[in-house]
Amino acid sequence: MRRSTPNCSFVAQEQRRLLAALDALDIAAVARILEEFVTDERRARLRGVIASRLDAVTVTMDAPHDPHNGAAVLRSCDAFGLQRLHIIERAEPFLVSNTVSRGSERWVDVRTHATTEAAIATLRASGHELVATHPDGELTPRDLAGIPRLALVLGNERDGIRPDLAAACARAVRVPMRGFAESLNVSVTAAILLEHATYGRPGDLPEPTQIRLYARALVLTVAHAAEILAARGMHLPLPLGGAPSPPPKPRGPKARTPPAAPAREERGAGAPKEPEGG
Predict the structure, then answer these.
(1) Contact 156/64 with Cβ under 8 angstroms?
(2) pTM score
(3) From CA 75, how far away is CA 52, in angstroms rounded?
(4) Among 34, 95, 137, 259, which is 20 to 30 Å from 193 by CA?
């Protein structure tokens, strides 16, 4: 049973709705319109981060269960510049604790797959080598930087990597440890390995993908983005851009309300008097 955590969301489903809405619009026009409402520093920050994003490295999680672990891995993907996180859902949809992800769900594309076969086909089609995480792996973290296109495979909290997915991984990587602990939390493992896997890699997102991501960032961060776009004839579904503000009330002279008469204190017969001077 999943832990009962408030403020959770099914990130992949929400992202699909947003991206479908954006795809129906002129993405470049959306970016041009909304960037007028951010500072030069903010524009430079967004463009700089997006330019350093990576398609060459990705993570595949096998049926993650705990929304805290899933959110922590998602946050690490964002921190180390990964643009995509693949999830094999198997029995339950991918649930993320937004308290833990801290907004990272806005920047990383979450791709869900119903079956192992679908995930493997997608990753092989994009040229990624699947590398499993295992305590006895022949690779060390430093070896990951030399793999041109890497899909780091992380197992379920209880069952690890299922046999059908492990069979698709030609190699495995370990995190060297010298203590009594035999394993690390899946999110800690991800962070350690991603730091090494992404070290020294330049950003490699195609220009159209960068523009799309830039427009998405502006839609999600500019106040009243949906209203601004609607004024230019470009409409987003309201939940994606926020509900419109209520129309302002007309300003006129305020009617004066007479002051209320002081309430009379009534005491029932025989009620004790309060002490004076208390």
Answers:
(1) yes
(2) 0.80
(3) 16
(4) 95
